Amino acid sequence: MQKSGTPMELNFQAEQNQEDIKVPYRQLIGSLLYVATITRPDIIFPVSYLSRTLDKPTQATWKAAKRIVRYLMATKDIGLIYTVSSNNLISYSDSDWARDKINRKSTSGNIVLHGSNAVSWFFKKQGCVSLSTAEAEYVAAAASIQDLVHLKEINKDFSSFEDTTLLVDNKSAICMAKTFENSKRSKHIDIRTHYIEDLLAKDIIKIDYIEGCRNIADTKPLYKDMLNKFMKLSNMG
Question: PANTHER family recorded for this chain (predicted)?
């Protein structure tokens, strides 16, 4: 089997009008989800994306799933490396605005580092349709911060913690989180996303800006060089 240098083709989109095929697609995606959740955050985005089509696999999605297997074969010696480092919790949050061509919902991406060690990550479709990039990023940040606060409470049981910071690559989303007000522009966003504003007001977490080229929670298929850069930042090797 030919190996692959990246887990997903750039700009890959699952088309709705293709003919369904009978293959063990569900079993393969289930196995890949286990690997992605436990040890390989570098494949969590493509696996999560393909898991949306479990009931109707097509030739294109089956090929994309097998590409992930070829990528794992090429990188079978790579895994997470855990080292003693600082006690900071840093969460990276990202979103792709309306990338799904079928329903125009965005995807939230998140990875949390304890010092330099990756301890939690997810990529999942948002429950609402966002009307702007800022709104999509804001919804992603709200989901990320819930995971971050949970990990902060766990960390307190083991040792004293230092900073707890959420990094977002959209300044407008950060501004929405810090204003602590419901504007006409954002009132349609589900109320639970405003949880982030309350945490900021109580100084439980911090929020800061990070350039997109340094955001390791990127919600799209990546070039090989960028993928390798983000893997190194996630302490994979």
Answer: CYSTEINE-RICH RLK (RECEPTOR-LIKE PROTEIN KINASE) 8, GAG-POL-RELATED RETROTRANSPOSON
Read off the pTM.
Answer: 0.86
Q: How many residues does the chain have?
A: 237
Q: Identify the CA nearest to 231 among candidates 116, 133, 101.
A: 116
Residue among 179, 196, 175 at smallest CA distance from 132 = 175
Helix axes 133-158, 171-179, angle to 10 degrees: 70
Q: What does the alpha-carbon distance between residue 185 and residue 187 come to, in Å, rounded to a whole number?
A: 6
Q: What is the DSSP letter of 176?
A: H
Residue type, 82: Y
Minimal CA–CA distance to 51: which of 39, 37, 72? Answer: 37
| Mean pLDDT lowest among 61-65, 111-115, 160-164 | 160-164
pLDDT in tens, 154-184: 877 776 666 899 999 999 889 888 875 555 5
By CB neighbour count within 10 A (0-12 exposed, 13-18 middle, 19+ buried), where does 1 fall? exposed
Q: Is the dihedral of CA 27, 129, 43, 158 positive or negative?
A: negative
